[in-house]
Amino acid sequence: MHLGSLYTAAASFLDARAHGGRWLVRMEDVDRPRVVAGSAQRILATLEAFGFEWHGEVLRQSDRFDAYAAALDDLHRRGLTFACSCSRQDLADEPRYPGHCRDGPREARADLSVRLRVDSGFVQFTDCIQGAFRQDVALASGDLILKRRDGQFAYLLAVVVDDAYQGVTTIVRGADLLDHTAAQMYLQTQLGLRTPAYAHVPALVEPDGSKLSKSARSIALEPDAAVLQLVYVFELLGLAPPPSLADAPLAGVWAWGAEHWDLRRLARHSALTRAAR
After folding, report:
1. How many domains does one find in the chain?
2. Beta-bridge partner residues of 271
3. What is the H or E stretch that residue 67 is in?
4. Contact 145/156 with Cβ under 8 angstroms?
5. Any idea what the CATH number is for the domain that residue 208 is in?
6. Distances from the Cα of 161 to the Cα of 61, 133, 136, 143, angstroms
7. How far apart are CA 223 and CA 130, in angstroms?
8. What's the pLDDT tens digit per position in 87-135?
9. Domain span holding position 154
10. Could you give the CA distance from residue 216 to residue 276 in angstroms, rounded to a whole number?
11. Percentage helix, strand, coil for the chain under 3-state DSSP, each rounded to 5
């Protein structure tokens, strides 16, 4: 975790606390080849060191493959999916998936992906921070991958199934994921699942516009300086903490933040440039 991770997690945590809600932690490790050994434990230890408290057990996507398979089978039985032989290289020059395999795989091969048929039409919603948003998923992305050619379930399927399973009602996350929301809502509709409310906080960027997570100036999280780093994050979230908060205990910092939390302070921004520290 880095400063950008803390910033987004704090926004989510404060919103839950301010509304008397439950804050959930999920290890999104569905992409098994990319999982780094020990990373989950380090993330949880960092969250605990910064005073985050979550409700219930940590849900791990790597334990949920049967649920994803059941959802995929349901879509298949209703004729909403199809097998696709296209590789990334095949689609390298395509701005969206053009539907090559809708009537059957173009190539006979063992490693086929599974795609969701996406019909034209706008998905519309009002984001709690970014305001009105709409997207024609068919035009933006085309038919969506739910299971990859290497047999791994797609994050899209996993996150939609898990949000419903955990009873998630509000999702607070970075604005870099705003463009993915319509696809998730489309899949929710196809599976007959409830759509949560969404709030996309402005992404933290450097003065040159680069992502904070890829910046050489990205600040590492230091548990020994948890209060000072949280106060800085509160500043970035528009809370205007008083100087005296830097001397408060960790629990007091969170209590102050929840009391003063207001999503409207972040309205309409897609990105915020952080100050050098």
Report:
1. 1
2. 203
3. helix 65-77
4. yes
5. 3.40.50.620
6. 10, 23, 22, 18
7. 32
8. 999 999 999 999 999 999 999 887 999 999 999 999 999 999 999 999 9
9. 3-273
10. 12
11. 40, 15, 40
